[in-house]
Predict the 3D structure of the following.
Amino acid sequence: MNDAVTDDATGIFESITTTSLVDRAHGQIRALIVAGKLRPGEPLKDSVLAEQMGISRSPVREALRRLEQSGLVEKSANRSYRISLLAAEDIPELASLRLADETLAVRTIVQHRYSIDSLAEHVAQLTAATGDPAAAAAADAAFHRAVVGLARLPRLAARYDDLTDQIRLALLASDIETWGRGEMLVENHTMLVDALTEALETGDARRVVRMWEVHVLGGMTAFDILDPLS
Amino acid sequence: MNDAVTDDATGIFESITTTSLVDRAHGQIRALIVAGKLRPGEPLKDSVLAEQMGISRSPVREALRRLEQSGLVEKSANRSYRISLLAAEDIPELASLRLADETLAVRTIVQHRYSIDSLAEHVAQLTAATGDPAAAAAADAAFHRAVVGLARLPRLAARYDDLTDQIRLALLASDIETWGRGEMLVENHTMLVDALTEALETGDARRVVRMWEVHVLGGMTAFDILDPLS
DNA sequence: TGATCGTAGATTGTCGACAGAATGCGATCG
DNA sequence: CGATCGCATTCTGTCGACAATCTACGATCA
């Protein structure tokens, strides 16, 4: 979140990023969760986490509070942390939230006529990843994240990141290997970029937003939100 | 967040809601912020907060972590908490996020054909509040919150609540007394309910969503996002 | 044999303490 | 007289400890 700002343009001074133990614990636990090492419902005991990381319980506890607020961790009634019980039935809601955020990003980009040149690089990555499902999924995620970033709405980007973490966890827990089927990925994203470019010229975002909805929801035919959200 | 579920339907047993000190500290600090007792940029020292509340620093710290994640509090570079530096220039982004969440709620209600009967009560509250700006603002906020709640998307509601807190803080800091001008409040909301009712019949949410955008953004003519977000 | 109760262990909530870093004030030097 | 340096104080980050609560296992009883 706060990367100990280093205004050192020359790079002479090493970035003395003395990350706090809270940040490190947060990052490690989060990584464990999104990597699937810990599954939903699994209890998280701050004492064992602290011992495993060789630190005290206080930083672990604060890290868990952060994770709780960002949705990866929750507290059961009998006071004890556990990985959030996200499952297949939560995916429709999470996907709706994600779609709402992405379309807001698209609308904002069009409204302010922000440049989208950087998206080409992501499409290239996507092209290079054909045949490699994992790489394709990563490039796909990076593309969508880049669009959100282009809107220059920092709070939107922050909550989008939390959201993608939760979706990742829910997918892992549901044993859904690939988010969407990997065919047509390049074509679809090229179409999106084209539509976005067109919207930037005309100033009308409706068409690209509609395509975006179809694209995102189309990747989830396995779930119950098939309607294009009129 | 978790209200120590009491399934005591009979009400014989007192709800032994042993709220943790973290929850209480969180609530108290949050209340102070949204009430305007603490202004953006003001430093928050956990030691003094703890002493003022008569508790230890640990629960205060965890409460601050939660507030940090929900956007009311942030950490300055030189490690120290302060009220988030929200100001007038942040309102456009916050309003965009709020609008995105509300329109998602409206779309979801229409898509699932959820009942909106409970909204009538809120319009009545709004009517009863004519002439009292504070009550009108509260009723207005309650109406919008109710719409979000009707969508039955718990994570949407949670992030919407965080958002409204941030907006409240930003408005307080900008010395903007009333969110929108209070005239026409009843008429506007009646129109929204009518449009929503119509959408529930036709299944087409486009019209009500468009009206919603105009309504929300119209309440903020003072800011720079006037375009109806094509 | 099965269910209930009780106790031992584990785990959390909270506290006080200590070291390191930051802040602010005063002394010193130009 | 003004700017810089140094020191004292304050505050934060982290730790270990203690009590209260919860869990799980085993003993007791019907």
Q: What stands out?
A: Residues 1-15, 224-230 of chain B have pLDDT under 50 and may be disordered. The radius of gyration of chain B is 20 Å.
